[in-house]
Amino acid sequence: MTRTLTFTKGHGTENDFLLVPDPDAELGLTPADVIALCDRQAGIGADGLLLVTRSAAHPDAADMADEAEWFMDYRNPDGTTAQMCGNGIRLFARYLLETGRARPGTVPIATRSGVRQVHIPGGDPDGHPTVAMGRPAFPGPDGIKVTANGRTWPALHVDVGNPHAVVQVDDLADPGDLRTPPTVEPAGAYPEGVTVDFVTTRGPAHLALRVHERGAGETRSCGTGAVAAVAAVLHREPGVPTGRYTVDVAGGSLAVDVAPDGDMHLSGPAVLVATGTGYPNRMGRREAPQS
Ligand SMILES: N[C@@H](CCC[C@H](N)C(=O)O)C(=O)O
Known about the structure:
Elements lengths: L4 E8 L2 E7 L9 H8 L9 E7 L15 E6 L10 H13 L6 E7 L2 E7 L9 E5 L9 E5 L2 E9 L3 E6 L14 E3 L9 E9 L2 E8 L3 E3 L3 H14 L6 E7 L2 E7 L5 E4 L3 E8 L13
Parallel strand pairs: 2-3, 4-5, 10-12, 13-15
Antiparallel strand pairs: 1-2, 1-18, 3-4, 5-6, 6-7, 7-17, 8-9, 8-11, 9-10, 12-13, 13-14, 15-16, 16-17
The structure holds the ligand N[C@@H](CCC[C@H](N)C(=O)O)C(=O)O.
The ligand N[C@@H](CCC[C@H](N)C(=O)O)C(=O)O binds next to helix 2 and helix 3.
Subcellular location: Cytoplasm
Pfam family, one: DAP_epimerase
Enzyme class: isomerase
């Protein structure tokens, strides 16, 4: 039997996602299905898959159902789950608005790191949604090191709902080809894996970022990475001005607004580009080359 699902494809600064409506949490997508759907050659292709599920219907979100009707059930393209996604949740809000599941204004969305408030402007499909990211945490330990292509840097553990190791580099080319994943030491610092953010300074309140995402590899943008990068600057240089930071990524620019108390908001484009029907059991199959 051919299984089908409806999907919408979209992106935030070219961090691209599949949104799959699953209101009653009954699709039962396996990690293998997610890997196949996100495969760029033998599937549809994406940096992540967002199941659009009613909080009340999902065991990971039922306790948030009173606060947030919808749960972003985030899956990495390697089939694992993640707690949060700064670009994904802004796109998720755009999807809720454009499919009539939410109204313009502030929409609470449940995630595996709690309920996040996303502000989505009405009447402008190009308007930038903004997510309240709260205050980043710095859980340590000290002495984290990241190595990429033979070079090693000190890193800071920043938790923005999901885990990040932030590295300050002189030039974004310094880490080299990130198809070879960076290694992070000590090995026990991130028992569930980590996203590595390579950050350089372009001017006052202006950063640029390359990201090797946990469960995905190098991507063209990462919203939580942008917030973690700004948090690392403020942690390293207490007293630097708060206000708006611009974070350039390969796929565009994100804005991170820092309140005097350290609360952060992330804004940027979130664009829906296509809707279609997928056939998950035909995807991800690779024939051995004929000799
Ligand atoms: N692209 C994201 C982060 C997605 C989750 C990440 N791969 C993880 O495993 O934590 C963003 O925009 O924040």
